[in-house]
Queue: 3 jobs
Job 1
Amino acid sequence: MRRLVMALAVAAATLMPAAPAVAAPADFTATEVSFTSNDGVVLHGTVLAPASGGAARRPGIVMLEGAGNRGRSYLRPEAEAYARHGVVTLIYDKRTEGYSAVHRDFSLLADDALAGLRLLRDRPDVDPSHLGLWALSEGAWVAPLAANRSADVRFLITVGAVGITPAAQTAWAYGTYLRHAGVSGSLPRTMRGTVVQTTIDLGIFAESDFDALPAWQQVRQPVLNQWGQLDRDALPGLSSRLIGGALDRGGNTSHTIRIVDGTNHNLHRTAADGFDRLPDLPADYADFETAWIADPSLTAPSASLADEPAPPVFAAGDHAWVSSGVVLALLVAFAGFLVVGRRSKLGRPARWLAVLTPVTLVATYLYLMFLLVVAAKVTGPVVLGRPLPWLLLQLLALATVAATVAVAATWRHHLDLTTPGRIRLALLTATGALFAVWAVQWGLLLP
């Protein structure tokens, strides 16, 4: 019964008539569509097509979004540019079932792209022999998988493709953006190393070790790989060399590497040396791409790029569990301090330590989580090479260690304590010692 219901749902979605064209500028039309992926998930999108129809069939592209789920409107300016250049273009909302901030499956996203491609292939205004994928950033990890699965993919165009694993790319980008913000010292090391490794170990960095190069090596269709000269996310120098090398090793003789002057990761105009995300497209956007679709042998002069420094290498390990064990032991010791012999008079350093330890621990995790959410692109004011919140956290960590030393030094003054009082003092001292281990591990006690 369940299979029957799913089959009926898939059939209904497939046969659903397209919505009428919605209001759009006179040079193209926009039509709302729905299509179904292999697992039965229905996706919703918009097809933008040149307004002047005629009998001639036109090239078609399916656009693959970058990381996150911003919705089809995020790629609307690019889609409109291609439609104005005579290309029928599909943009669609990325699935929410099976895709989230902590779960992504590039193979599943490749199936979605091919489902969209089938929708375009069946349109009377699309030429199936000029049907391809356009992929941005994360989408360029997906595109070669899709190309290797279907002969319907006649060409690939990528923007900001990454030639290393998502984990290594993320760590490199953290360092790049923090350095641009004037941040030095332990925070970049913590973000590039401890934070990324912890997300991998906890299983919340899906596809962290995905290597796209084997898939690129199998691609036989014509490929146009493009990077902005001021791309601060995709390591354009290293990625262009690695992906170009994989295509060469696979025997692909029809691929073009293009570096676009003065543009950022999205091939948009930039007013901040590539560290912004302005919505403005260059005036000649899609000129070269549409000419290349008509003739994949077309080449264009490209700016030269040097390889970026080698990014770190990550593998699943036990770092997060060791850190979690330290934190758990710290919390147990602190809880014991709160429970045992609460009437014992331990003095001011003990009271300070009892307050500073949990406050510093929680505040550190909250700030690092904030940096994760904003991809280290928003740090707050920078003082002495440190974001002000991180500087305050380091000062709190130093104060916590100082309080621990002060508590340990008071042992000889508390020989008259009752047994519960001595236990409480020992637990508090252990809490401070464990905190120091944790603070070193997370960079709070490092320069």
Job 2
Amino acid sequence: MTVNFQYVNIDTSETLSALTEEKLKKLANKFEFLISAQVYFKHDEKDRETGKICNIELSLPGPRLFATSNKKNYEMAMTETIKDLERQLKKRKEVFSTH
């Protein structure tokens, strides 16, 4: 699975990229049909409390899956987004297995 990163209004972080890629690889091992992932890390200036946004879009057979979260740091946002995607992937796998 290929993973593309985009950092919007923030500096690039190698450690954040490595951590995200590691978690996405675990997801790819569990769900073999994943093709690629687009990961966006953004900073929202208006939101003082949280404002650290992680968007992930997964490419796979059928419609793409998308999840986003807004937390007080990027690691928490990334973890929450991947949990959301995993829930969506479990539902998609159930649909695939019934046919």
Job 3
Amino acid sequence: MKFRPCIDLHSGKVKQIVGSTLTTTKDEAATTNFETNRPAGDFAKMYQRDALTGGHVIMLPSKDGQPDANKEAARQVLQAYPQGMQIGGGIRDTNAQEWMDAGASHIIVTSYVFKNGQINMENLKKLVDIVGKEHLVLDLSCRRKPNSTTTTTDDYYVCTDQWQKFTNVKVNAETLQMLATYCDEFLVHGVDVEGKQCGILEDLVALLGEHSPIPVTYAGGARSMEDMEMVERVGNGKVDLTIGSALDCFGGDLKYEDVVAWHKSRNS
């Protein structure tokens, strides 16, 4: 199991936002846990110094769409740590190669592939043709449907459009097996706990650990070293973990240095 670092950009600044509160119409409605004027590239250099790979930088949308400030900050990240970070946020066929050329190791895609509530296979195949399966990460961030009354692990559905809309794509063994033939990794946010430091979704981690045939990173709710160990245990060592708001470098109480030390102890 690995610790996967992250950098979230909003209006060109490094922030930690509760993703489920983010919309494209009201920036002020978003719950912001952390914000800094520190250059985004500084965080990338820190991750490079600590030999952390497979992290991601996400360009979060604002009411003005994807501002140039976000793009510039993202380019700083990729220049600071070439081939060390994946990039997501508004990625599609027309700009995928641009971000690869800028230094991304992978592109991360959600809404361009999951459109109108279903998988758009034509768009997915376009991206594979452009950047190659080995450079594509599919974001399967998901939540339970409100009318779900069962407690099985088959109730999670991929969400799009700032996690406000459900698709008909269920996160289960069949979906993971099929999509794995088109991408290199999965990124999965547990939407209902993301940014809330309230603990991980154990059943989702267990599902990913049991059924994902390719590397998968879980994000959402992690707040302690105990949560890291739980992800390692419940995910059978196959699920990597992203931690955001809980880290002291993002205003939280969990020491970044302790997390890096734990990571190195598992991946020496």
